[in-house]
Amino acid sequence: MEINVLKTTGEDTGRKVELNEQIFGVQPNDHAIYLDVKQYLANQRQGTHKSKQRSEIAGSTRKIKRQKGTGTARAGSIKSPIFRGGGRAFGPMPRDYRFKLNKKLKQLARKSALSYKLNQNSILVIEDPNFESPKTKEFVTICKNLNLTDKKSVFVLGEPNNNIYLSSRNLQKQKVLIASNVNTYEIMNANTIVLAESAIDVLNKMFKIV
To answer: What domain range includes position 69?
Structure first.
């Protein structure tokens, strides 16, 4: 399928580029998308949460009252979870939330996400932008030209460009990624995907489609 290539000014270049149907035209698999997004979010978690168990609480080990004759339940330690200031029963402990997914499933998830965006007409292709120096104002101008000012958008570049990255870093709704680092979460979380022309070849190679 073909899509028009736009200039950074928002005008049509008169050229078209081919988007491979094996990447942008697959039957979306919702469960693959769910698993890949779940893994991405799980990998962001530090897992450093911790609460003190009864063995870690500072306090006396003296039996706080006699065993019988009080009319209340027996109690052996002030550090018991049933008392205020005691340890927490079954509280959170440090853990690793990461889990494994197969490469083919992750590829299917990314293809499904890109196919969803193309079906929603949420993919734009532009000429490769070129910034001589980091200028947030220039990046904002490009977003205005493409009517993306109030939309969450992801700009996908073919290769690293530090000037473009630094120009977008301070903008809350815009994000710049390299094509080889594109992930399902960022695609689904964005309203619009903006592909640089060079990014399309990188995506074809990444999914082993020549």
So the answer is: 48-96
